[in-house]
Design goal:
The protein is an alpha/beta fold. It contains 21 helices and 17 strands. A 6-stranded parallel β-sheet has the order 3-2-1-11-12-7, sandwiched between helices. Strands 5-4-6-8 form a 4-stranded antiparallel β-sheet. A hairpin with a 4-residue loop joins strand 4 and strand 5. The protein is elongated and about 90 Å long. The two termini are 45 Å apart.
Length: 559
């Protein structure tokens, strides 16, 4: 990989009207996984996130709180940065639209567009949705309400500047046709084409009734409408129109803008039209992901049906939450958040499959070989199958990450983990250990398990950045082992393992009650293994706790 290969990925900049919820975390953690994986591949990555701090809603909330808008957003932005630190988000740059350099860039952009005739002064008569910061005409309303969020709009009538979006309708349609990957998923592209073909109207880009914003430099009674201000962040953060940064030539155009589907229209119509007017390159891809739903509706700060990611992380662990968001939600579609689904995913994938495989492997290496195992050649078909899965894993994960099918990438990794668990049942190391003549075969089996864990751990580093080093540590390796170039079977010749803490404790929640009573009765969960029943028979271990036979954790976890 050339050291000059770059990758520029952005989240939307979040609106700090209140603390962020788990839906915002979903977007950012997905971008983080992509950024981490690209770094593992050797790319020079720029991962941008930030906050969109202007607009009427902020102005009104600050007034209600008795503080200035800047004081109000400063407090919220601090919680945003704390959240990204908690979630192990490895962003490279954090932009605030109140940053002086960004405001300088926006004023230069606005002036240029005005001077070349792409922005003109007019009068806006229509409707405005304050939560969405969106203008709408009568024909665009749905049952008299905002077509995006379904909430009330109010009549707006004021002098305003407009961007000639309509001028670029044909060029936008040509862009979509010639660059089929520009808008993803495909269904979203069809929505944008239909929106343009119904008649693309010019876009209001300034307000006189809202003072909390960037002043229009040549007409200061106007402030810039939030979307021109917000969208320009993707280039101002690189130094376009300012001298604070000097990365524009290196990283632009963006490789990927990741946004929620509700703002895809601004990113695939208004933003490329602005860039066309500025004669600048266009981003390569814009992906509009679905919503995280709760009780059947989109999570929304204004509606109040939100989940605090800080509470979730404190209760279940950061990597458990990251895994749930990346694995559970079909990327591009809406996904449902429930506490039951979260706990089931933690218990099934992380505790039972991954955690149990590591603990069993390390325990057997220590029990049968004092902790040290070597690469013992083997030609048995069952070994070849696992070796092939290990060797093909990186290619499969890379293809999935390139296609932005992040959940499928995790499915591929856990297919190896699950196959390794089954491999234990099929090879029965405890039976091999009974005969000294089987010692080479036993060592080969345990080495295969270590290799499956090592390669899986390297790839999981993009998704579970605190878990992967713990896996390496129990395998007797350090952080330097998390090297994508070493994801082939046999790259590590020897292991000296040592047992550590459980990666993911088994969790209790609704629908997963601890057994009644204590002692012998409470340990009845393991009778499935002893009697050859149920899941214990298929996996060769306790249906709930792996190979351990003690009491299950008491109590219940709820949101």
């Amino acid at each position: 990989m050339s050291e000059h290969k770059t990758f520029y990925i952005t989240t939307p900049i979040y609106y700090p009207s209140d603390k962020l919820h788990i839906g915002h975390s979903y977007t950012t953690v997905a971008c983080d996984a992509l950024a981490r994986f690209k770094r593992m591949q050797g790319y020079d990555v720029m991962f941008l996130t930030g906050t969109d701090e202007h607009g009427q809603k902020i102005q009104d909330k600050a007034a209600d709180a008795g503080v200035t808008p800047k004081e109000y957003v400063d407090k919220i932005v601090a919680t945003v940065k704390d959240l990204w630190k908690l979630l192990d988000v490895s962003y490279d740059r954090f932009i605030r639209t109140t940053d002086d350099y960004h405001m300088e860039s926006c004023q230069k952009i606005f002036t240029k567009l005005y001077e070349q005739g792409d922005i003109y002064k007019g009068e806006y008569i229509g409707h405005y949705c304050k939560p969405c910061e969106s203008f709408w005409t009568d024909s665009q309303l749905v049952d008299g309400k905002c077509p995006d969020c379904g909430r009330e709009v109010y009549d707006a009538h004021e002098e305003a500047y407009f961007f000639k979006t309509s001028k670029y309708a044909d060029r936008l349609l040509k862009l979509y046709e010639e660059n089929p990957q520009f808008i993803q998923p495909e269904s979203r592209k069809n929505e944008m084409i239909a929106f343009i073909k119904q008649g693309l109207q010019d876009t209001c880009v300034s307000r006189t009734s809202v003072k909390w914003g960037i002043p229009v430099p040549f007409d200061p009674k106007h402030t810039m409408y939030v979307w021109v201000d917000a969208l320009s962040n993707y280039i101002s953060a690189l130094g376009y129109g300012n001298e604070t940064y000097h990365d524009y030539d290196k990283f632009w155009p963006a490789d990927l803008h990741m946004v929620g589907k509700e703002i895809l229209r601004f990113h695939t119509i208004l933003w490329p039209a602005m860039l066309m007017a500025l004669d600048l390159p266009l981003p390569k891809r814009v992906f509009g992901h679905g919503w995280l739903l709760m009780n059947g509706g989109k999570m929304s700060k204004s509606v109040g049906n939100v989940v605090d990611p800080v509470i979730l992380c404190d209760r279940y662990g950061v990597d458990a939450i990251r895994y749930f968001l990346l694995r559970e939600i079909p990327f591009g579609n809406d996904g449902m958040f429930t506490n039951e689904a979260l706990i089931n995913r933690i218990n099934s994938d992380l505790a039972n499959d991954l955690g149990n495989l590591l603990s069993r492997t390390v325990a057997m290496c220590e029990k049968y070989f004092g902790g040290t195992v070597h690469n013992v050649p083997s030609t048995e078909a069952i070994d070849t199958e696992l070796e092939t899965m290990i060797n093909e894993l990186t290619g499969k994960v890379t293809a999935d990450m390139d296609k932005l099918t992040i959940p499928q990438a995790l499915v591929e990794i856990f297919a190896v983990i699950q196959r390794a668990n089954k491999y234990i049942d099929e090879t029965a190391p405890w039976a091999l250990a009974k005969d000294e003549a089987n010692k080479p075969r036993l060592e080969s089996v345990l080495y295969h398990l270590c290799e499956a864990l090592r390669v899986s751990g390297i790839l999981l580093n993009a998704y579970l950045p605190s878990t992967a080093p713990k896996m390496m540590d129990q395998l007797g390796l350090d952080a330097s082992a998390l090297d994508l170039s070493k994801t082939v079977y046999g790259a590590q010749e020897t292991y000296t393992v040592h047992k550590g803490d459980a990666l993911f404790p088994h969790r209790r929640g609704q629908g997963d009650r601890p057994p009644e009573g204590r002692g012998r009765e409470a340990q009845g969960c393991c009778r499935g293994r002893q009697q050859g029943k149920g899941r214990g028979r298929e996996e060769g271990r306790c249906p709930r706790r792996g190979e351990r036979c003690g009491l299950h954790p008491r109590g219940r976890d709820r949101l």
